[in-house]
Design goal:
The protein has 436 residues and is of the alpha+beta class. Helices cover 49% and strands 18% of the residues. The structure holds nicotinamide-adenine-dinucleotide.
Length: 436
């Protein structure tokens, strides 16, 4: 799908124009567009079915990141996020990456890990051996709980046993059930399988099955994106392409070496990842937990991504992280906005969604590093931040832009100063910016 070039850029249109442009560009029905705009989004009645004690719904901004090419396909990415600059940053970096051929992304088979903790085992070694000798029978039983998944080519794949030789409560066993959940996130499926297997596992091991729960360290289900940014795309203002590239590589070294920096580096990645995870109704706490646990897998928390110079001197980036997301089940199924987001991105499988998400994470990482390694993060951030401050100070729609501009020009982006300016304007109606 070629992204249409209109005389006005997408960001220059008003919201109604953007929606209508999106409708024709992605050939979306009015119903899908209404779900995306929130007009026909999640209702209070839907919410009442989803959680306990519901009293309403809570809205967040939804925007479209443009210029993404993932595995040769143009994708309009739906992002839900309250933080300014994220969608603009992703779109801009996707444009630089597009000049180098776009993102190349892969996703592992959708295998989740379910865990069982087995206490009061008389002999760990013997119990582990016995459990492994019953593997086929246990996997067969686990398959019987979800014939739909088995029909779709999913189901249990493996059973592993780990021994915890000493702990404050004594030794215990941990069983890992590896389960292919196809296009689902899989938590319900895996938890049901674990609870079904528990009595048999207890009988075979001679112990007592305690916890039975999915692991969010979904390291059998990794997604990986790589990209090459041509050196020529990196120069801007007075920054040479080489200085931007080398600055990004130096910033990367900092994140690899230092967990204080790595936490913020990875947070920048999650700005992009979470925004798509939320837009598609997926469980962002699960993805967050998996990402940070994976970042600490060596025993020391470090960067999820890497940036280096390739043979031609271009900037090469890669990001690998667990990506437990689905396109069926959970809120993806119930939330009209999530369904519409999947339609807009033309996603046909959980793997394809994972590939888009990890590409957005890499783009977001690049946006942050490029800014940090050159002009600093605040310059790009401030004009959007100033708009939020203007709104918080009570500016009307016709005043927001001018007030934000004045705050940026003064270099004082604070709500108290914004309120003062509004007060000055109200004292002097001639000076009030009515038309913008
Ligand atoms: P689900 O149970 O709603 O849907 C999965 C089911 O859909 C499968 O079991 C299968 O029968 C069916 N299905 C139909 N078509 C399918 C296809 N193409 N691929 C795969 N399955 C298909 O959802 P789920 O993904 O098992 O559970 C996700 C939910 O569990 C999320 O809302 C999450 O928040 C929640 N949860 C998470 C955790 C955790 O992360 N630790 C724990 C408990 C619950």
């Amino acid at each position: 799908m070629e992204q249409k070039s209109t005389s006005k850029k997408f960001y220059e249109l008003n919201m109604a124009e953007r929606l209508s442009a999106l409708g024709s560009e992605a050939e979306l029905s009015d119903e899908t567009l209404r779900a995306l705009s929130g007009e026909d989004g999640l209702t209070a009645a839907d919410a009442d079915h989803m959680v306990e004690n519901a009293i309403g719904t809570y809205a967040l901004p939804l925007g479209i990141a443009r210029n993404f090419v993932v595995n040769g396909r143009s994708v309009l990415v739906t992002m839900v996020i309250e933080e300014p600059s994220v969608i603009a940053g992703a779109s801009f970096m996707a444009k630089l990456v597009r000049a180098g051929g776009g993102f190349t992304a892969t996703a592992d088979a959708p295998e989740m890990i379910g865990q069982m903790q087995i206490l009061d085992v008389p002999d760990l070694e013997r119990a582990a051996e016995r459990l492994l000798s019953y593997k086929e029978e246990l996997l067969h039983e686990a398959a019987s709980i979800d014939p739909v998944l088995v029909r779709l080519g999913g189901g249990p794949r493996d059973l592993q046993v780990h021994q915890i030789a000493s702990s404050p409560i004594g030794p215990f066993l941990v069983v890992h059930l590896i389960y292919d959940v196809r296009d689902a996130m899989g938590a319900n499926t895996v938890n049901t399988a674990l609870e079904t297997l528990a009595p048999r596992v207890a009988a075979i091991s001679g112990g007592r099955v305690h916890l039975r729960i999915l692991s969010n360290l979904a390291d059998h289900r990794l997604a990986k994106a790589t990209c090459t940014v041509p050196l020529s795309e990196l120069a801007f203002d007075h920054f040479s392409a080489e200085s931007v590239r080398d600055g990004i590589i130096a910033a990367q070294a900092f994140a690899v070496a230092d967990p204080y920096r790595a936490a913020t580096h990875n947070k920048g990645i999650m700005n992009g990842v979470d925004a798509v995870v939320i837009a598609t109704g997926n469980d962002w706490r699960a993805v967050e937990a998996g990402a940070h646990a994976y970042a600490a897998r060596s025993g020391r928390y470090t960067s999820l991504s890497s940036w280096a110079k390739d043979k031609e001197g271009n900037l090469f980036g890669s990001l690998e992280m667990p990506m437990a997301v689905g396109i069926v089940g959970g809120a993806t199924h119930v939330h009209p906005g999530a369904q519409a987001a999947l339609k807009l991105m033309k996603v046909g499988s959980a793997a394809q969604l994972a590939e888009i998400i990890v590409s957005v994470g890499l783009a977001q990482n690049l946006a942050a590093l490029r800014a940090l390694a050159t002009e600093g993060i605040q310059r790009g951030h401030m004009s959007l931040h100033a708009r939020q401050v203007a709104i918080a100070a009570g500016a009307s729609e016709s005043q927001v832009n001018q007030l934000a501009d004045q705050l940026v020009a003064e270099g004082t982006i604070r709500v108290d100063r914004a309120a003062e300016i509004l007060e000055e304007w109200s004292q002097n109606p001639n000076g009030t910016p009515i038309q913008l």
